Each structure stands twice: as C-alpha cells, then as structure tokens.
Task: inverse folding
C-alpha cells in the first residue's frame, strides 16, 4: 500500500508541475502590448423617410453620432424647430446611450430667435442663433451644420452658414471625417 500511495503522489505532483509549466509557457503565444482598434463602426443614417437626424456628441466626446428622431408618416419638422430640438440636448434613447452636446443651452426666452433661412440651391441655408458662434468648438459647429444640412431638406446635403450674436461663419457642409 505504501508503494501505491507513493506512486499516486508522484503522479499527482508530476501532473501539477506539468500544468504549471504549461501555464508559464502560455502555449507558445507571444506577449504583446495593447492593440488599439479605434472606434466602433459607424453607420450613415439618411435624413429621408420618416426620420429626421439630430447629431450629438459621443459619450467619449470626440465625434458626432447620428440620432434618428422619428416623426409620424407625412409630417416634417421645420428647420428652426429642428435646431431648437438640437439645442435642448439628447433625450430618450440618445440620452440613455450617453450622447451629449457641445452646444450651449438656449438662453431663457430666446427660442423664437432661432431661425433658419429658406433653402436655396446656390447657397444652402443660414442658421441664426441667439448666442455667439465664433468661439464654438469644431464639434458644436458640426452639430448644427450636420443636423440642418442633412435633415432640413429631404434627400439634400445642404451647405449651412452659422450666424450668432458675434459673427457669421462661412458656409460649410457636413463632413464627419474632418
């Protein structure tokens, strides 16, 4: 019995040592550093159909994310109302997903001062807001340009100028890769 017990202890010890050796060698997989994979895939969301698209800032704060705003079939939203929705910030699922805004809150009692000029094929549209636009961040400017430029006129990517209480910024188009 003593010999059996000794051989089973030896076998157990050998198995433990072999297991440790395998763990230490890592099965031949070489050690690497962290591999950056970038952001999640992006999806282009069209402004046509039953949805209007509002562009908010990702929860990381480094890019714009389209957030569809669904309307009833046959209804459209006026461009100025679209801008006011954007200035109110993300709500519903967009807010739950952690999206934010780089735009300032609309000063109290100034909602009627938000206007959007009629669309012309030659010039696009001008968004008038009751706050300075010269110091807006690039993301804040893109939020306004992309939301109005993509959603205000169906099936059209419109150039948009921003006019605030301080200056008028030149016409720009929605280019999320800049």
Result:
């Amino acid at each position: 019995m003593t010999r059996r017990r000794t051989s089973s202890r030896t076998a157990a010890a050998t198995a433990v040592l072999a297991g440790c050796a395998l763990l230490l060698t890592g099965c031949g997989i070489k050690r690497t550093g962290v591999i950056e994979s970038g952001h999640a895939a992006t999806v282009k969301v069209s402004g046509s159909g039953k949805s209007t698209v509002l562009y908010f800032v990702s929860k990381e704060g480094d890019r714009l994310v389209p957030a569809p705003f669904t309307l009833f079939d046959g209804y459209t939203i006026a461009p100025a109302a679209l801008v006011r929705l954007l200035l109110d910030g993300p709500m519903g699922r967009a807010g739950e997903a952690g999206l934010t805004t780089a735009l300032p809150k609309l000063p109290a009692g100034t909602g009627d001062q938000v206007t959007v000029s009629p669309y012309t094929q030659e010039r696009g549209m001008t968004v008038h807001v009751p706050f300075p636009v010269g110091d807006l961040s690039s993301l804040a400017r893109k939020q306004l340009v992309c939301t109005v430029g993509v959603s205000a006129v169906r099936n059209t990517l419109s150039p948009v100028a921003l006019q605030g209480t301080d200056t008028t910024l030149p016409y720009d188009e929605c280019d999320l890769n800049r």
Q: What stands out?
A: The chain has four helices and six strands. The first strand starts at residue 51 and ends at 57. Strands lie at 51-57, 64-70, 115-116, 125-128, 160-163, 168-172. The helical segments are 2-25, 79-88, 92-96, 138-151.
